[in-house]
């Protein structure tokens, strides 16, 4: 038996969860809701990650919420500024009072008889059970407890400090020290120029190159526009400009990968000069957008390399030594501090164990409906952003759709909605078509997408805008039912109250 009842339970009080709270109370204001947050603070990613230089790798005009204009000068914002933006949103829209901290959701069980989920969370080591009609998972996609670190040979021999960016020690002093950052993704290219400001030298050690592009940290056009137009209007203009350019660039990369690749490499060569070995260190073997591109604001990493404060080594690790890392080439990189910017561990559906009428749900065995609901799972949605654009663009649309869905159910007197696939010609495909290591390590555990709509993921904001904001709810795939009980039958809410 549950201790409390809410119409909606939102899991996670980060960027997605705070946005979900806003959209729910705006578009379905008659629904009660609670946000269950496993940690003791809000902000999610932007509170957890505290490594030097932490920032966005997307512009804030698209990473920001569609309802709250980004007003700061820098479009590529630092982590503390983004955290403040998220928390200001929660405060300004009275969302904070709905958050229950220290409630780590571990399981949820659906009962068709009661038309409700019983959500079990751990609070101070004890179970807390909350019933709800709709469950909205907004806890992101990776494991907050543990980042990914390979089992490096000889690690125990190294006499210096080894740290993972996901759990950065507050007291780590790297001033005047030799630092090796293992990795070449977004975290690595953020750490290298920032640490190079005070370290003796920073080396980025990579097995293979990543596409790296530079853009100004400040958007001159956006700042000019904000001085002349109302904030919301300027924000929407810049937001759509950036969305459309991002879609254009992604489609161009898919249609003409060699041309896009040549142009990216050319821009790097212009930054680093004709004598720098760009072919070795900044020319990947894969096509653009097979993995996510790395952004460096104001060419900060290139500037650190040119100044001699940072360098890039492309090689494989043979073993850690007491003084650093021995490479396959025989070279030894001396280090006082080694940073393993080696990626994330993904967590499927926020790590919540799901059962439906006593049947355990294996996420890997179900199709994803519109990238947000799941085949055979009633009254559940998850907020999952884009891989080729800003996370929040898709999350905003998902939140709007959930509001529409709840209002439709109320209008039609139905308490249950379930995506059902009745088309035998739909083939299963991987949920994400991404070659990045962190995806490939875990993708087999994730739900699948289908070969046709509405089970197909578009990774396209314009198409999702039409499908989630404007397309009709009843499409023949969503099955509605389980009407409100008769007057003499107690509802789940009444049972909890009793």
UniProtKB/TrEMBL annotation:
Keywords: FAD, Flavoprotein, Monooxygenase, NADP, Oxidoreductase. InterPro entries: FAD-binding_MO, FAD/NAD-bd_sf, Flavin_mOase-like. It holds the Pfam family FMO-like. SUPFAM superfamilies: FAD/NAD(P)-binding domain. Gene3D superfamilies: FAD/NAD(P)-binding domain. One of its GO terms (molecular function) is N,N-dimethylaniline monooxygenase activity. It comes from the Bacteria. Belongs to the FAD-binding monooxygenase family. This is FAD-containing monooxygenase EthA.
């Amino acid at each position: 038996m549950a201790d409390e009842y809410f119409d909606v339970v939102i899991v996670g009080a980060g960027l997605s969860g705070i946005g979900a709270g806003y959209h729910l109370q705006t578009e379905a204001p008659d629904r009660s809701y609670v946000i269950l947050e496993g940690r003791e603070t809000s902000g999610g990613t932007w509170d957890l990650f505290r490594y030097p230089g932490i920032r966005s790798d997307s512009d804030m005009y698209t990473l920001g919420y569609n309802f709250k204009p980004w007003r700061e000068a820098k479009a590529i914002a630092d982590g503390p500024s983004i955290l403040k933006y998220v928390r200001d949103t929660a405060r300004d829209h009275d969302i904070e009072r709905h958050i229950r901290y220290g409630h780590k959701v571990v399981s949820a069980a659906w009962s068709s008889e009661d038309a409700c989920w019983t959500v079990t969370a751990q609070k101070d080591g004890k179970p807390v059970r909350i019933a709800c009609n709709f469950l909205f998972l907004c806890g992101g996609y990776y494991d907050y407890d543990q980042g990914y670190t390979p089992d490096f040979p000889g690690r125990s021999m190294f006499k210096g400090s080894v740290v993972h960016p996901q759990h950065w020690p507050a007291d780590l002093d790297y001033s005047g020290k030799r630092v090796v950052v293992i990795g070449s993704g977004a975290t690595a290219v953020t750490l290298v120029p920032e640490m190079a400001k005070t370290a003796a030298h920073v080396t980025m050690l990579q097995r293979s190159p990543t596409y790296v592009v530079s853009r100004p940290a400040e958007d001159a056009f956006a700042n000019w526009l904000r001085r002349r137009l109302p904030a919301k209007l300027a924000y929407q203009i810049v937001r759509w400009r950036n969305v459309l350019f991002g879609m254009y660039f992604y489609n161009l990369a898919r249609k003409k990968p060699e041309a896009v690749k040549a142009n990216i490499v050319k821009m790097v060569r212009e930054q680093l000069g004709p004598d720098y070995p760009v072919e070795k260190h900044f020319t990947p073997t894969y096509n653009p957008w097979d993995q996510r591109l790395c952004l460096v604001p104001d060419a900060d990493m290139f500037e650190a390399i040119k100044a001699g404060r940072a360098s890039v080594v492309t090689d494989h690790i043979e073993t850690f030594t007491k003084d650093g890392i021995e490479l396959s080439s025989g070279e030894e990189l001396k280090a006082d501090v080694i940073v393993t910017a080696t990626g994330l561990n993904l967590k499927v559906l926020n790590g919540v164990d799901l059962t439906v009428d006593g049947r355990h749900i294996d996420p890997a065995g179900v199709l994803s409906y519109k990238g947000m609901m799941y085949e055979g799972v009633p009254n559940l949605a998850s907020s999952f952003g884009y891989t080729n654009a800003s996370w929040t663009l898709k999350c905003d649309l998902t939140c709007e759709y959930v509001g529409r869905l709840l209002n439709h159910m109320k209008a039609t007197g139905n308490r249950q909605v379930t995506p059902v696939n009745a088309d035998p010609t739909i083939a299963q495909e991987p949920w994400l078509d991404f070659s990045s290591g962190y995806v490939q390590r875990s993708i087999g555990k994730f739900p699948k997408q289908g070969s046709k709509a509405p089970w197909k993921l578009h990774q396209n904001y314009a198409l999702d805008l039409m499908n989630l904001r404007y397309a009709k709810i009843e499409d023949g795939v969503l099955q509605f039912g389980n009407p409100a009980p008769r007057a003499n039958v107690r509802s789940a809410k009444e049972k909890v109250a009793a």
